[in-house]
């Protein structure tokens, strides 16, 4: 086991979040030696250990202080928090950031052949789900008197197998629901992956390391959303060119060797440049228009 001075981060070992988590840690500058079957990976350039576990275990590990940080779906976090709250053991965890991967919805669905249904249809019905706490809270909020059937997997086959009348399950494209002859209803929860921290964490060294990682995390997020735009723009049309550029940033203008009529225009934009805008820029006489991804940013 690692020593206690090292910051411990729990991530999903294998599944929908694991690749993005590993990529994020890499972008934060954490160098890991991830060997396939290892539970713990030690960072070689920072006092950080990464624990790779089932995603369902992540909230508990962070709440109990076994790990200092964790990356988990908000769906799993919310379910675990509600479960702890009900058993009177709240667990102290705070969300440090919502991440830009792992998006999904927790939605109700029922057999397609029943056609459209409203909330009153659920009265007296059995709903299968892996998220009994979140579903129960929703039913209570909406004043629906349905019973909850807890299933840990293959929820989408429950109606066909006669285990339930409807389901409440995670959806991203809806293809799984469609393949199982189910019709999608209300969304109960929208979820992304998020970074969580044990709220009781007091170790000054670990807190300082988190303070160092957070601006990097914001920088990675900002860089992903931003583009570096370059072009040769006609001096006579600069105002019109600038009016077409997205975002509020000021462009940099540079002299272009051997040209009196054109300048090189560079800018960082929080948005991409759409084909239509590029065509309008070209129509104004701009050329060599480049839109490039940005790897890192620090303001
Ligand atoms: P584990 O073995 O770690 O318990 P799992 O099978 O419970 O894995 P995955 O299917 O890998 O979990 O999903 C992990 C998380 O990815 C989900 O809890 C959710 O936050 C997110 N996610 C994103 N899109 C989807 C989707 N279409 N279906 C299910 N989960 C999704
Ligand atoms: Mg799981």
Layout of helices and strands:
Layout: E1 7-12, H1 18-27, E2 40-42, E3 48-53, H2 58-63, E4 69-73, H3 74-86, E5 93-98, E6 104-111, E7 126-129, H4 132-141, E8 147-150, E9 166-171, H5 175-179, E10 182-191, E11 193-198, H6 204-225, E12 227-234, H7 238-244, E13 252-255, E14 262-269, H8 275-283, E15 287-293
Parallel strand pairs: 1-3, 1-4, 7-8, 7-9
Antiparallel strand pairs: 2-3, 4-11, 5-11, 6-9, 6-10, 12-14, 12-15, 13-14
The structure holds adenosine-5'-triphosphate and magnesium ion (MG).
Adenosine-5'-triphosphate binds at residues 12, 15-17, 54-56, 73, 75-76, 102, 104, 170, 172, 191.
Catalytic activity: 1-(5-phospho-beta-D-ribosyl)-ATP + diphosphate = 5-phospho-alpha-D-ribose 1-diphosphate + ATP
Domain Histidine biosynthesis HisG C-terminal: 223-296
Cofactor: Mg(2+)
Describe what you observe in this structure.
There is one protein chain. This protein has 299 residues and is an alpha/beta fold. Helices cover 27% and strands 30% of the residues. It has helices spanning 18-27, 58-63, 74-86, 132-141, 175-179, 204-225, 238-244, 275-283, and strands spanning 7-12, 40-42, 48-53, 69-73, 93-98, 104-111, 126-129, 147-150, 166-171, 182-191, 193-198, 227-234, 252-255, 262-269, 287-293. The strands form three sheets. The protein has a six-stranded mixed beta sheet with strand order 2-3-1-4-11-5. A five-stranded mixed beta sheet has the order 8-7-9-6-10. Strands 13-14-12-15 form a four-stranded antiparallel beta sheet. It is flat and about 75 Å long. The structure holds adenosine-5'-triphosphate and magnesium ion. Pathway: Amino-acid biosynthesis; L-histidine biosynthesis; L-histidine from 5-phospho-alpha-D-ribose 1-diphosphate: step 1/9. Residues 54-218 form the ATP phosphoribosyltransferase catalytic domain. It catalyses: 1-(5-phospho-beta-D-ribosyl)-ATP + diphosphate = 5-phospho-alpha-D-ribose 1-diphosphate + ATP.
């Amino acid at each position: 086991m690692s020593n206690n001075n090292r910051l411990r981060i729990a991530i999903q070992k294998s599944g929908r979040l694991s690749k993005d988590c590993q990529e994020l840690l890499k972008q934060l500058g954490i160098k890991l030696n991830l060997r396939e079957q290892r539970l713990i990976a030690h960072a070689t350039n920072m006092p950080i250990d990464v624990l790779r576990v089932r995603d369902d275990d992540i909230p508990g590990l962070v709440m109990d202080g076994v790990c200092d940080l964790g990356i988990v779906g908000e769906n799993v976090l919310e379910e675990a928090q509600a479960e702890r709250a009900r058993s009177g053991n709240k667990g102290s965890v705070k969300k440090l950031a919502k991440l830009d991967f792992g998006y999904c919805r927790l939605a109700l669905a029922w057999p397609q052949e029943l056609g459209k249904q409203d909330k009153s249809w659920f009265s007296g019905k059995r709903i299968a789900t892996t998220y009994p706490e979140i579903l129960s809270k929703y039913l209570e909020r909406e004043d629906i008197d349905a019973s909850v059937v807890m299933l840990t997997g293959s929820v989408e086959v429950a109606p066909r197998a006669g285990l339930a009348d409807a389901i409440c399950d995670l959806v991203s494209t809806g293809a799984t629901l469609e393949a199982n002859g189910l019709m999608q209803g209300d969304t109960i929860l929208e979820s992304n992956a998020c970074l969580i921290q044990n709220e009781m964490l007091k170790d000054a060294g670990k807190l300082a390391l988190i303070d160092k990682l957070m601006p990097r995390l914001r920088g990675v997020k900002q860089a992903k959303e931003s583009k570096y735009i370059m072009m040769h723009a006609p001096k006579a049309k600069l105002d019109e060119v600038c009016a077409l550029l997205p975002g509020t940033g000021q462009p940099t203008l540079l002299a272009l060797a051997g040209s009196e009529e054109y300048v090189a225009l560079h800018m960082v934009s929080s948005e991409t440049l759409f084909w239509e805008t590029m065509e309008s820029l070209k129509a104004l006489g701009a050329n060599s228009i480049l839109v490039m991804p940005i790897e890192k940013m620090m303001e």
